Amino acid sequence: MIKLSPSILAADFAELGRSCEAVMAAGADMLHVDVMDGAFVPNISLGVPVLAALAKRVPAFYDVHLMIRRPLQYIKPFCAAGANLLTFHIEAESPVEQTIQAIHDEGCRAALCIKPATPPEAVFPYLDALEMVLVMSVEPGFGGQKFMPSALDKLRWLKAEKDRRGLKFLLEVDGGVDAATAPQCVAAGADVLVAGSAIFGAADPAAAVRAMAAL
Ligand code: DX5
Ligand code: ZN
After folding, report:
1. What are the helix (H) ranges across the chain?
2. Cβ contacts of residue 210 below 8 Å, gap of 6+?
3. Which amino acid residue places its CA nearest to atom 9 of ligand 1?
4. Which residues are catalytic?
5. Which whole number is the average pLDDT over 30-46?
6. Which segments of 82-196 does DSSP mark as H helices, in order?
7. How far apart are the first and last CA of the chain?
8. Which ligand is closest to the CA of 137, given by its number?
9. CA distances, 152 to each of 72, 80, 157, 158, 185 (Å)
10. Neighbours of 129 (CB within 10 A)
């Protein structure tokens, strides 16, 4: 069963609670929360207080994507704020094994993310410990970019390794996912689709969720 994780980055932040309730009611499986620190990526989005307020108001599975330089320092506050799954970048500065352990210690699921220039093999040593791997199909930092087809090969490669080792982690893809690219991602092995502009950028986000689910 393919899961859909709408990225709130593309939502109207002044209407965040209402927009998130609408996509959840329309059948979204989780909410993707993009955290940017202006250092790991050249943009600043939102942080712990916004997640805490949202999680309090909208019951959902919170898929939190940390695009920050030092994820290890912020595991506790994000988990306490309501994150159910915390994704951090292998290119960040925190020690990978220790950060995965810190996430699990908080009772949260852990995922590692790779940027477009990072080969999928980089995450192979950690696959046993992860609940998910996130493959970026755009350079992290901004919504509304064009899908990079090179992500499809990475998904295939990770899916092959997952099956070869009999592992259960999920494969998520993020960036430029829409009605045209979603089926390609699924065919390549993706289990979780993140979509920002394609959902919150649509005139009717709830209808966009239903349309994506129908694919
Ligand atoms: C990009 C973020 C994505 C972004 C996706 O840095 O990680 O989650 O919101 O937005 P779209 O779907 O518009 O590419
Ligand atoms: Zn993201």
Report:
1. 16-25, 48-57, 75-81, 96-105, 150-165, 182-188, 197-200, 205-214
2. 26, 27
3. 143
4. 34, 174
5. 98
6. 96-105, 150-165, 182-188
7. 12
8. 1
9. 29, 34, 9, 10, 6
10. 15
pLDDT for residue 215 is more than 90: no
Query: Is the C-alpha dihedral spanning 103, 91, 69, 58 positive or negative?
Result: negative
Q: Contact, 195 vs 177, CB < 8 A?
A: yes
DSSP label at 2? Answer: -
Mean of the per-residue pLDDT values of the chain: 98
* Global pTM exceeds 0.85: yes
Answer yes or no: is pLDDT of 167 > 90.
yes
Distance 145 CA to ligand 1 centre (A): 8
CA of 194 from ligand 1 middle (Å) equals 7
Note the pLDDT tens digit of each residue in 74-106: 999 999 999 999 999 999 999 999 999 999 999
Q: How far is the CA of 202 from the centre of ligand 2 (A)?
A: 18
